[in-house]
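Before a colleague's protein record goes any further, I have to sign it off. Thanks in advance; the entry in question is below:
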Amino acid sequence: MNGYPPFDAAERIESIKAGTLAALSFSLGYSVTTLGNHVLLGVQSTWDFNLLVRVAIAALSGLLFGITYRYIIRDDQNSHLNDGAVLAFGLVRGLAQVDTGLSVTATLWSLCVLGIESILLFAIARFTLDWAMQLGWIKPFRSS
């Protein structure tokens, strides 16, 4: 034995469900905000390869968040854990975008919007997961 508790298939299935739901809600939110940005800013865009890659990255970010969020919150009722998970994931993604944007001389305002957007998208995924857990569609990770 490696010292870790046994991990059963039911827990893995719940994690996959949480990750899938978060990936869907995150990528849908990302798609809506991207479309909104293009409409509001009047940017002409096409469905090109770069956009598909960005949506895929958003879905992967949501998937990883969903799986991790389920383990972070467990079956506790601690709002600091919920908020902290969103803020941590949002800041990591947002600051990575800011770091990349600074190297291509983007405006500070647009970089701030990207950072806030990241936190907002993870919050949407969080509330979707919380809602699904309330309805019993996804079970929280059991604390032992």
Notes: Residues 9-135 form one domain. The chain has a mean pLDDT of 84. The CA atoms of residues 89 and 122 lie 7 Å apart.
